[in-house]
Amino acid sequence: MKHWEPLFVKKLEATDLGDDPAHDLAHFTRVVATAKALAADEGARIEVVAPAAWLHDLVNVPKNDPRRSQASRLSAEEALVFLRSIDYPEGLLPDIAHAIEAHSYSAGIEPRTLEARVVQDADRLDGLGAIGIARCFAVGGLMGVRFYDPQDPFAERRPWNDRENAIDHFHVKLFKTAESLKTAAGRREGARRAEFMRQYLDRLAIEIGGEIP
């Protein structure tokens, strides 16, 4: 990968990734690092995992865009064009494309290969834990969403609604992604990150309730 990865990074640096801090170059770097760790633990082919992780969000469609479910397919198509332009081994391209297409939560594509499961888990793990909390509020800010419902912060008398309240997104999606992880290593890490998020919500309840422990 020493020859290829600088080319992947250069491609991302030349790509307009938009103004979403949850999908900036740092996001790609974290996903790649996690994907490599999962691949080593699970025995996945790094020559498929690494390019798929680097290029998984090559076409970034905003969360509230009606084309959101197409983003991973568009990213896979763009990735194949790029990989062919740098003469990446042709025989690996179908599995790379599938791993990119299947990583998306909104696309609803079941990963058929170990490598696709690794990339999907790596991307979903980045939505959990401390970094997941930061990303949740960053995206909420971009979309004009308030932190929580001041009348009913934890949806005791209303349905969860992450279009209006950022912390509702924990329950609408993020805790569900922790339960959807496909690899054993991913599930272990997902459980740790989800527990941290629950602890955060417990602390938040104390602070917004005016309690001093």
Please, could you describe this protein's structure?
Helix 2 (25-42) packs across helix 6, helix 5 (93-102) packs parallel to helix 6 and helix 7 packs across helix 9. This protein starts with a helix and ends in a 5-residue tail after the last helix. 59% of the residues lie in helices and 0% in strands. It has 9 helices and no strands. The protein has 2 domains: 1-108, Orthogonal Bundle (Hypothetical protein af1432); 127-213, Hypothetical protein af1432. It has helices at residues 5-13, 25-42, 46-55, 71-85, 93-102, 114-125, 129-142, 168-180, 184-208. With 213 residues, it is mostly helical.
Summarize the structure.
The protein is mostly helical and 213 residues long.
